[in-house]
Queue: 3 jobs
Job 1
Amino acid sequence: MHSFYYACPTCPGAVGQFAIQLAKLRGAYVYTTTSARNTELVLGLGADQAIDYQQEDFSDLKDLDVVFDTLGGDALANSWSTLKAKGRLVSVAEVPDEETAQKHDISAFFCFVQPNREQLTHLAELADSGHLTVNIDSEFTLEQAAEAHERSETGRARGKIIVNVSE
């Protein structure tokens, strides 16, 4: 079994919720950082261990196979030592330093997501079959798009924010 750590104290937004579930579907043991108020939610999504970032330091973890970083900065800098040799660090926040990756014998990647029909179809199939939960935080009309953006900017959304353009 592989170990997977998802670094994001503002979890569980939609990215975090999907990352946890997709890692579990791949058979990983999943660690994630979150606030105490979201512990039950991330455990319900399949995380094996929730780390309260206000009380614990995730960098005490060791020998992880994969770290998925959405924060960059200190979280990224502290992630190198949690990985085992030949581990993988994937960041959506900043480009990991290649020299540091080589020093730790880690494969490091920057992930910038591009729309991909095949991947979206696969995610839809997982959702339709009940293997992927899609939590809706809130829904807005097109006229409320500014409010939807404000909700997103709070960093407190617990799932997808929907702007319904068909009404």
Job 2
Amino acid sequence: RIAEEEGVAAVALHARTAAQAYSGQADWDRIAELKQAVGTIPVLGNGDIWSADDAVAMVEHTGCDGVVVGRGCLGRPWLFTDLAAAFAGSHVRVVPDLREVLRRHAELLVEFHQDEARGCRDIRKHIAWYLKGFPVGGDLRHQLGLVDSLAALDRLVDTLDLDQPWPGD
């Protein structure tokens, strides 16, 4: 209420405690309580948004005005397209091709850094998020964590079984 009285444009609440860190479940009821407590400013909810359906469920559960996405977008850059579609009433979701997503992300990093080796070093930290939930052996994960060129990335990604469906929640 103080923030509202001081003129903030909106307030966001992450519904997980500091003690929980990255474990446990976000308590969306706290977001609903905040929404009821403030008067006119928008309330944004955060916590456990891994899909567009999660975001819609949070809004329905809490009455919040929007969502804030944190770790849920890591390895899922298409999540924002899905969020826009879901909040526009569409049930159609993006089903990406892992090879295309990884390659395009790496290309954009190479372009951003203007250096292939540096861009490929940068993609390494994202690879684990992209592969989360996929049955990929430790040796291959290790090799992908050492990628130093787009050609090396292509060779390793070509060894993945990319016909498997995207892992669920």
Job 3
Amino acid sequence: MNPTIEQLQTLCAIAQAAGQQIMDVYAQDFASWQKDDASPLTEADLRADRSIRAGLESAFPGIFVWSEESVSAGARNAETFFLVDPLDGTKEFVQRSDEFTVNIALIHQGQPVAGVVLAPATGELFYAAQGLGAWQSQANEANGALPLCVAPARSGTPLRVLGSRSHGGPALAAWLAQLPLAHDFVAAGSSLKFCRIAQGQADIYPRFGPTSQWDTAAAQCVLEQAGGRVSDFAGQRLRYGLQRPVLNPEFLAVGDAQWLQNLAPLQTRTQQPSITPS
């Protein structure tokens, strides 16, 4: 299944409409509260979710939508569906950091075949689709879209490692300590870490700790279509599905796969418990 350029542009427009809802909240005082899993929730999450769901249901009637904040009614066995995080990086949003995103992915037979990642605060828009490649554009700029391509592996230069601002802890520190390559580490928020690798600005993102399907699918599509890969520590590509666990295994997102040949073997930690949509 290869989405058309028109369908991808429609997904971009839906993400941008949600981004405007988010920025309307961001521009004023807002409250946050905790969900059952102790993650934060704001009015921006809910407004963006409503905006995206309305847009997808209008433009793509009949396709199941699984969002972090809501789930379509009906049978949950579709092999083609939308996977949505209306506001990825709510912690960054609450802290008034600009590193939060809107993520919309189209999943077909377990793989993301289209993905849109919007950073509303900066205007950065990343989008990709199977058969079309990966692209970046900037709000309010006339230069148009630029193709994305990962940076090739380089000898004699440090490995550029990205990590989460909110997760990682001892496991990430231990992984960095055993790297056989010189490296520079930079912390970043939300799904933008994948996009920075797709831009060629970083080389690898090791993820320790929980992520959900909606956190990674859209950005995985962007990175893969830019020439990168996202796989668990056993080397298996991340997969998605309504009947699969909500939580992903720990993973490596990498630009040039040649970097992996130089990394020390890593032992996968115990995986997170299985949770299906509710």
